[in-house]
Amino acid sequence: MRTTVRLLEVAEDKDLPVKIISVETFLVAPRWLFCRIGTDEGVVGWGEPVVEGRAATVRTCVAELSEILIGQDPLRIEDLWQVMTKSGFYRGGAVLASAVAGIDQALWDIAGKVRKAPVHELLGGPVRDRVRVYSWVGGDEPAEVAEQISERRAAGFSAVKMNASNAMGPIASAAEISAVVDRAVAAREAFGPSGDFAIDFHGRVSRANARRLLPLLAETSPFFVEEPLLPEEGHMLPSLMAASNIPIATGERLFSRQEFLPVLQAGIAVAQPDLSHAGGISEVRRIATLAETFGASLAPHCPLGPIALAASLQVDFATPNFLIQEQSLGIHYNQSNDLLDYLVDPTVFAFADGYVERSTAPGLGIEVDEAAVRRADEIGHNWRGPLWRHPDGSFAEW
Prior knowledge:
This protein has helices at residues 55-69, 77-86, 94-114, 119-122, 145-154, 174-191, 207-217, 237-241, 257-266, 280-293, 306-317, 370-379; strands at residues 3-6, 20-28, 32-39, 44-47, 130-136, 159-163, 196-200, 225-226, 248-250, 270-271, 297-298, 325-326, 351-352, 355-357, 388-389, 395-396. By secondary structure, the chain is an alpha/beta fold. Helix 10 (280-293) crosses helix 11.
């Protein structure tokens, strides 16, 4: 099932120290797409280009972009990034940005391996020795939050994130509003004053409901509230933030620094670009710097696989305004396979006391189990996000 673009005869420039000769993609459960870039020197880079629910579409885009890559020097990362994002005349969007993101991760992986250094050293060197991570509790229809938080605390995590609610109407009922608040109260009681929990509105909450909820949630002191509005409603963020002192986070569905600029100007506290969506390591580094000029922190979005997490961590170690890192171990989407299943050495993601230690291994710092990936691709997946409807039959935001 995998797609492969391979150079049969290496291009005429024989002076390049290393050349890209193959680009392969693999659909691997539960809902991921991996990319393998091979070179004539035997150095291999891995990336994770995917839009959840549209993996096959991104796979096609990677195959198209491969026409640009074959025969090129993989160490010219910035030049290849510029050409991939701009040479097609029509620019941007989730599919193209995600395809570029995974390729960019793989190119940085190659660069680190060629130079025998972790990517964070190529980004200017580490500014921290370990990265704080958070875990997920509560699924798309969150329940038993207190019990799940207790389990995460026992596992050493000091921070979690949970969805605020399931589907919610444009003007929520008193019972729906109370359920969100009660869930936050239960989370705070389970954690006590020393732990952190973030609440994800997931774009399910209308502006009217958000304005009602934020003041009611303030007493529970959430770490932040994520995506309180849909990404296309960013122009309404200033009035929403005026109604609350809770830090606001957003960005998982923004794909460039140009798209982040308005929300940073609106005053968000936490920028959440996704390393598999927002142009990869190259663009997320620029987004982080832009966020720093607005006093905002970086907390990369990452409910995906091990390559996306590895790329995120490399940025985290080299970014001064980094806050906390999402990771998907045990997340409710990982039903058939989990975060560690495609790694030769899963201990690289050993979470101790809610942190992961800085790796000194070259590239992205992980070794992908290629045989396991190829076996998984033989089965593939066709994951789709759920389709929700309101009681009257109309579409509801997931």
